[in-house]
Write a structure and sequence with these properties.
By secondary structure, this protein is an alpha/beta fold. It has helices at residues 16-27, 39-51, 66-80, 103-130, 152-171, 190-198, 206-217, 226-238, and strands spanning 7-11, 31-36, 56-60, 85-88, 134-139, 177-184, 246-249. The protein is globular, with a radius of gyration of 17 Å. The two termini are 32 Å apart.
Length: 254
């Protein structure tokens, strides 16, 4: 139980990669605040964490609203007495050629994926310092390292997360706080279900498009899982001398 006595929040923790990270941290011993717009999903994951013997709370949070984010940090500290690990995983995606992309959709994707990470990091830092240091783990994407057609807005948001991670790591390095990013590859989540539908060719089904993506893009020939991301998050939560990195967990794509 390497994280015994530690407390974490995970945004976007109600499903997918966020759920995988929240439960991995819980298995490693951490108490968990599961934050999500979908409070039912957050409650379900919090119940799973409690079944593992951890303290856990569910919080409804819109990461684009500073008041929500600040309340999330306060609620985590109120519940557990401290904050040691801040996991910023909430994200959205859509598919559109740049010329057809609505300004409102650009704002939505950048608002959640980039502004949301900024607001969460800003709110978490004072609480992490009060705990004597800690870990910030931002969930970016391999789309934060290379562009993809029809995903300019999503790639821009994830490049921003990688850049923010690198810069902030240098700002707080002497405070005992590390800042790293996880860059998932192809993980079968709600996001990739949307992407598979958009990637269909001809009479291909979404499932066939998914399998083509896995076999065509991943050298290992198999998708990554939320549990993979959870295992990396536990490592980043315990590593003392690793900071400013954006680690691709993608089966060799990058």
């Amino acid at each position: 139980m390497t994280l015994q006595g530690k407390a974490a929040y995970v945004t976007g923790g109600g499903r997918g990669i966020g759920r995988g990270i929240a439960l991995a941290l819980a298995r490693a011993g951490a108490d968990i605040a599961v934050a999500d717009l979908d409070i039912d999903g957050a409650e379900a994951v919090a119940a799973e964490a409690r079944a593992l013997g951890r303290r856990a709370v569910a919080l409804r949070v819109d990461v684009t609203r500073s008041a929500d984010v600040e309340a999330m940090v306060r609620s985590t500290v109120d519940a557990f007495g401290r904050l040691d690990i801040a996991v910023n995983c909430a994200g959205v995606v859509s598919v559109s050629p740049l010329e057809a992309l609505a300004e409102a959709e650009w704002d939505r994707v950048l608002g959640v994926n980039a502004k949301g990470v900024f607001l969460c990091c800003k709110a978490a830092l004072p609480a992490l310092r009060r705990s004597g240091g800690g870990r910030i783990i931002n969930v970016a994407s391999i789309a934060g390292k290379r562009g993809s057609p029809n995903l300019a807005h999503y790639c821009a948001s994830k490049f921003a997360v990688v850049g923010l991670t690198s810069a902030l790591a240098k700002e707080v390095a002497r405070d005992g706080i590390t800042v790293n990013a996880i860059c998932p590859g192809i993980v079968r989540t709600y996001m990739w279900d949307l992407l598979s539908e958009a990637r269909r060719q001809g009479e291909e089904t979404a499932e066939e498009a998914w399998q083509r993506s896995v076999l065509g893009l991943i050298p290992q020939g198999r998708p990554q899982t939320p549990e993979d991301m959870g295992a990396l998050a536990v490592y980043l939560a315990t590593a003392e001398n690793l900071t400013g990195q954006a680690i691709s967990l993608d089966g060799g794509i990058t």
